[in-house]
Amino acid sequence: MRKTFLFLLFLFILLGCKRKTPELSKQEPISPEIASLINTTNITSEEQNLTLNKEEPPIFLPPPGPYKPTNKQIQTALKNAGFYNGPIDGVIGPKTLKAIKEFQEKNNLKVDGKVGPKTWELLSRYLNNTPSESLPKLPKD
Questions:
Q1: How far apart are CA 94 and CA 115, in angstroms?
Q2: pLDDT in tens, 119-128
């Protein structure tokens, strides 16, 4: 009985578990428009150099959902905006908290000391500026 079972199992595995591959003759042909998009071998070396030599700035895409800035980003933006003059150490201490509240008050935001989406929307504009770019220029005497 056991030998019969093993024989049938072997036979089933041998004959019944063949992978079926789709028949290529039944597939629809690809349209020329799609084929030209897929086929990149028709690009000339001159076209390749044009696309490779383009120096475009990288695009910053925030992660999906609400973006939470790091403490160092907050301090950097506050410093560039002229509200914070302490060290950029990533610690939200009394100086940083005071700077956040001053920034919120100056920009007609809810003064709560928290960098929420509305505060960060305005504050993030100063993240990549240098302090001299963000401060108004004084007239020379």
A1: 14
A2: 999 999 998 8
